[in-house]
Amino acid sequence: MIGRLRKVLYEGGITELFQAVLEETGYVEELKKEGTDEAQARIENIDELMNKIVEYEEGTEVPSLSELLEEIALVADIDGLDSENEKVVLMTLHSAKGLEFPYVF
User: Do 70 and 45 contact (CB within 8 A), yes or no?
Assistant: First the structure.
């Protein structure tokens, strides 16, 4: 499966890879069968990730899977905070990793 998916990535791109992973695993179909609110929320998250992938590929001259994953991993709620406002921000150390903060306790 990894070999097939790697070929999809090299021949088609990241969007095609994501679609192939969803098809091969049957994950969305299983979520639909589950029929719960939590399953629906997961499907919506998958749709949002697909939109992010398409947006990334369209806006990047030479898209790469590793660059996309780095970008997605660094996006967090903290990115939307107003830096002019003096507040204490609570987050896990894991979330703070790689971000530039003058102090982390």
Answer: no
Nearest residue to 27 via CA among 12, 13, 42, 17: 42
Q: What is the largest CA-CA distance in the chain?
A: 51
pLDDT per residue as tens digits for the range 13-48: 999 999 999 999 999 999 999 999 999 999 999 999
Q: How far apart are CA 33 and CA 45, in angstroms?
A: 17
Structure-token pair, residue 64: 């790469």
DSSP letter string, 56-89: HHHH-SS--HHHHHHHHHH--GGGGS-TTS----
The mean pLDDT value for 88-100 works out to: 71
- Sorted by sequence, the CB contacts under 8 Å of residue 16 that are 6+ apart come out as 8, 9
**Cβ atoms within 10 A of the Cβ of 18, count?**
21
